[in-house]
Design a protein that fits this description.
Helix content: 40-55%
Distance between the termini: 82 Å
Strand content: under 5%
Order of helices and strands: HHHHHH
Structural class: mainly alpha
Number of domains: 2
Largest sheet: none
């Protein structure tokens, strides 16, 4: 082998594995959108309860910041008593809808899935019962 043929082999020996690794990496990267993944799952907005539907949403998305009397904005979503106040005064629905005039919630995160928002709205429209 002459020295020019070695120079031609080195780039191929380095570039080919890099291209293979890059193709595997690009194929494995994607972003899941909940509504696209579960398109056929119906959104149940009938018989929405605080304990089974709304409180789990608050635990996953809200109570880190909104717990107790010292909760951010004076809002306590860890209890029914606190949650019912913001449900009945309109702040809850306005915030999760990211409506004008309200602080969008969850703060610094994407808007909640449409089904979750519809369930919150259904609970509020039913009078925000403690059930």
């Amino acid at each position: 082998m002459n020295r020019f043929s070695i120079v031609k082999l080195v780039p191929k020996a380095v570039v080919l594995p890099m291209l293979i690794a890059l193709s595997f990496t690009l194929q494995s990267c994607y972003y899941d959108v909940e509504e696209e993944l579960y398109q056929n799952t119906p959104c149940v907005t009938e018989n929405v309860t605080f304990s089974q539907t709304i409180q789990p949403v608050f635990k996953r998305n809200c109570v880190v910041c909104h717990t107790g009397a010292a909760g951010n904005g004076g809002i306590d979503l860890a209890s029914y008593a606190g949650a019912s106040v913001v449900a009945k005064n309109g702040r809850l629905v306005g915030a999760v809808l990211h409506a004008s005039g309200f602080t969008p919630m969850p703060q610094g995160a994407s808007q909640l899935p449409a089904c979750t928002i519809n369930q919150i709205k259904a609970w509020v429209e039913a009078g925000a019962p403690n059930n």
